[in-house]
Specification:
By secondary structure, the chain is of the alpha/beta class. It is built from 16 helices and seven strands. The strands form two sheets. The protein has a five-stranded parallel sheet with strand order 2-1-3-6-7, with helices on both faces. A two-stranded antiparallel ribbon has the order 4-5.
Length: about 425
């Protein structure tokens, strides 16, 4: 198994854990003890009788803004609370180790990670990595992002980079899930001109990496991602770990295929305007946003159909153009933002030509369908309180005749009028 293309840093080999202490643990107990006492009695064994009662999730952060953590809090299908309490049938209880929600601090927080790294944890675990990975191997001193401390060869306390923890934990992990575009593709910290040589989780672990269950890195991109996309992926992965579901179906880039198989444009509420060749001129217009910088026709993302939180919101749904934040080329290959993509000149021209035929035909049909039958046969019978034209022109009558003829052609037992 190759975890990196370059030899790992020698700085953290042979380091020792400091003496165990519970500095800052105002709760007086570890999260693991709290779960055992408060939640686990209701969740053991799992609701479908699987062999695994619970699974540890080590949430590591690299070059991150914490937006992915915030996005997950808004998930509802399933909610993160359902994962943390073992409320989903077949899914083992999830014991989350996250710096923002942990009740303990210091070595008390680090101790489960150390047990996982040396193989004495006694329960399966999954790694979730948020943020891009700065190339810690290139540093002779210091770090870019770290978690916990160890005693180095000189007997001095030294911060341990989260990237080093990932390298230690990945070989024994049941799965490694990269959340957000920074973790999946490098994202903004890996943009042109960065000094950290940042990269994705898959780049750091290497192309040959497979988890203990044979899974490659599972990528859930987005800046930030849709929270439901992440929690759903976690649930599917845990069902596989439990043995009651298949391995998550991933595409060629390690994304959940059922979530990232369609482009934004195919499910966008504004896609019909593109078909008719009508485009927004400025933000706030209701038409298709392609000509003011929307990359939706090529970007693989489901936010237009799923929404940001609880099926509400989502970039295009609230007037924002897609800037490609779920794609490996983001941000460099989508910049400058809010400028029409190069292919728009050809595709939008084609849409306008098509729309010049489609729009009039639809208006003709719409005019006919917006009339009651009696209005055509009783002069002036349309209610006068409305502003619609009560009359029908000769053109309307001719087109209506042929429309009805074609509508009933080949049908049996139906009238030819109306």
């Amino acid at each position: 198994m190759t975890l990196a293309d370059t030899p790992p840093s020698q700085r953290y080999l042979g380091a020792r854990a400091p003496a165990y202490e519970q500095t800052g643990n105002v709760a007086g107990a570890t999260a693991e003890q709290w779960v055992d006492a408060a939640i686990a009695p209701r969740g053991k064994p799992s609701l479908m009788g699987g062999p695994i009662a619970r699974v540890h999730v080590f949430w590591l952060a690299g070059m991150s803004c914490d937006g992915c953590s915030i996005a997950v809090l808004g998930a509802t299908a399933p909610a993160v609370e359902s994962l943390l309490t073992g409320a989903i049938p077949g899914v083992p209880l999830m014991l989350l180790h996250h710096t923002a929600v942990q009740v303990e601090a210091g070595e008390a927080f680090m101790e489960p990670m150390r047990r996982a790294a040396d193989g004495t944890l006694g329960e399966p675990y999954v790694i979730v990595y948020e943020g891009s990975i700065a190339n810690e191997d290139k540093l002779a001193s210091g770090y870019w992002s770290a978690i916990g401390e160890e005693l180095n060869a000189a007997g001095e306390m030294e911060q341990v980079p989260s990237a080093i923890w990932l390298r230690r934990l990945a070989p024994k992990a049941a799965a490694v899930i990269a959340i957000g575009t920074c973790a999946t593709w490098g994202g903004i910290p890996a943009a042109m001109g960065n000094v950290t040589d940042s990269m994705s989780v898959a780049d750091w672990l290497g192309p040959q990496y497979r988890s203990a269950l044979g899974l490659p890195v599972v990528n859930v991109p987005g800046c930030s991602p849709v929270g439901d996309n992440f929690t759903e992926t976690v649930a599917v992965t845990l069902l596989f770990l439990q043995g009651v579901g298949p391995a998550p179906e991933l595409d060629e880039l390690g994304r959940p295929a059922w979530l990232f198989g369609e482009t934004v444009h195919r499910t966008c509420t504004r896609a019909g305007f593109y078909e008719e060749g009508t485009f927004a001129k400025k933000f706030g217009d209701k038409e298709c946003l392609v000509e003011i910088g929307c990359w939706g026709p090529v970007v693989q993302c489901n936010i237009a159909s799923r929404g940001a939180i609880n099926h509400m919101g989502g970039c295009m749904n609230v007037g924002g153009a897609c800037i490609g934040c779920t794609m490996p080329g983001f941000p460099d290959r989508f910049a400058p933002f809010y400028k029409a993509p190069p292919g728009t000149l050809i595709s939008a021209t084609g849409a306008r030509l098509n729309g010049s035929f489609v729009r009039p035909l639809r208006l003709i049909t719409q005019r006919k369908m917006n009339r009651e039958k009696r209005w055509d046969h009783s002069a002036g019978s349309m209610p006068g309180g409305w502003g619609a034209d009560p009359s029908t022109s000769t053109f309307d009558k001719v087109t209506g005749f042929f429309y009805d003829f074609l509508r009933h052609r080949g049908a049996h037992g139906t009238g030819k009028k109306g």
